[in-house]
Amino acid sequence: MKVLVCDTAAILSGLVLSSSLKKLCPSSVISEVKDLKSVWILETALKSGKLEVRDPKQKYVSTVIGAAKATGDILSISKTDIEVLALALELMEEGYEAIILTDDYSLQNVSAKLGVKTKSIKTMGIRGFFEYEVVCPACGFREEYSYNTHCPRCGHRLLKRRKKYS
Ligand SMILES: [Zn+2]
Q: How far is the CA of 147 from the centre of ligand 1 (A)?
């Protein structure tokens, strides 16, 4: 079974919402997501079950640190990226075909050293991603990245509609 392991940029790109494959990331990725839009993407992905948070075992983290030292990437690879790769290794050991979604050069390099496949976020076709906004059919209230189900102005039930990502 194929799974995608996401780095922070992969989450921010909105790809977590568009691909139908199972996606995972370590909790350190979650803590790097701060702005309103990205938090919305993240929470929507988590709520819809499109993304699962899981931290790798220390043994895999150690393997990645060893490989990063060997390739000379240890100073440029982030702690979060080490955990992303460690999680991919752990999933592979469990029989999954894990692919890391990243544009980070050091992460790609150390992944190659450990035989883990990576895919560039830029090549994934972000055109397929849609953002949502809610609109109130009664009073015209509109809000992006909304958690409301009912209009805060008039109380009417809000409609959710797709907005093309640009
Ligand atoms: Zn309204």
A: 15
Q: Which residue in this structure is represented by tokens 């568009």?
A: 18
Same domain, yes or no: 137 and 107: no
Q: Are residues 106 and 151 in the same domain?
A: no
How remote is the CA of residue 105 from the centroid of ligand 1, in Å?
47
Q: What is the pLDDT along the chain (166 residues), one digit of tens a residue?
A: 999 999 998 888 877 777 778 899 999 998 888 888 888 888 888 988 889 999 999 999 999 999 999 999 999 999 999 999 999 999 999 999 999 999 999 999 999 999 999 998 877 654 444 566 889 999 999 988 777 889 999 999 999 887 654 4
Sheet holding 159-164, edge to edge: 142-144, 130-135, 159-164
Same domain assignment for residues 112 and 149: no
Q: For residues 110 and 71, is the Cβ–Cβ distance under 8 A?
A: yes
